[in-house]
Amino acid sequence: MKTLLFVPLLFSLVVIQTPNSTPTPVEVVNYKWAPMRRVVENPDANGTTGPASAMIPQNKNFARNTRINDPAGTRDPNADTLDGRSAAIEKSVQESRSPKARPVDGFAYRVKLRNVGKGNIEILFWEYQFSDALNPATVTRHQFLCGVDVRPGKDKDLEGFSVTAPSTVVNADSIAKGEKNPFQEKVVINRVEYSDGTIWQRPDWSLKEVKATYERALAGPWSPGMCKGL
């Protein structure tokens, strides 16, 4: 997935289409957001390793092969060595300091999209926008990068998670006037990358504005359909 994401940056012959020549190739069907608690795995919790096992007689080839047939529950002789006991203690200490998972409170930003173009979409940049109802120029943006596989005419549900609240700035007048919704919402498509190497991008958005977060997102693991915040 990371290789696909880097393709547009490495080759200068990629064809970029803008809304001036073609309409937006992705239709926003619906969107919504909601508070969400997500359990985040601690990558260091299971990655702790202790000292290497000592070379005791039971670790030599013949004895090790014999131990394969030991009945279930037979004690591992490595546990009785100094290294084995040290590793067990170190593992317990590390696990107590680094819980395997922790809950994180945040917000889920969801959108359902439809590919109304002719190409197979692989990469999608989009954002969930909130603007002040009384001052539309005040906008809070939540940008996401998704690895997808959306064929022409097909729909796709996407979800981005962020610890940032929908709107960081709310007009006090909106609250005072009892506005049911103090901000307006919309989803904007920033960039679409296709399997044939072509790209659609809206002219008032640049990949440079998310360069740092884009590179950080690429550094982690990816899975099909995953969205990461930018």
Provide structural commentary.
Strands 1-8-7-4-5-9 form a six-stranded mixed sheet, with helices on one face. Strands 2-3-6 form a three-stranded antiparallel sheet, with no helix packed on it. It is α+β, with helices and mostly antiparallel strands and 230 residues long. Residues 1-14 and 43-68 have low confidence and may be disordered. It is globular, with a radius of gyration of 26 Å. It is built from five helices and nine strands; from the N terminus they run αββααββββαββαβ. It has helices at 2-10, 61-67, 82-97, 172-176, 211-219; strands at residues 16-17, 26-41, 101-115, 121-132, 139-150, 155-162, 183-194, 199-201, 227-229. It folds into two domains: 2-41 and 104-229, no CATH class; 57-97, no CATH class. 20% of the residues lie in helices and 36% in strands. A hairpin with a 6-residue loop joins strand 4 and strand 5 (139-150).
Notable traits:
single chain; 230 residues; alpha+beta; six-stranded mixed β-sheet; three-stranded antiparallel β-sheet; 5 helices; disordered N terminus
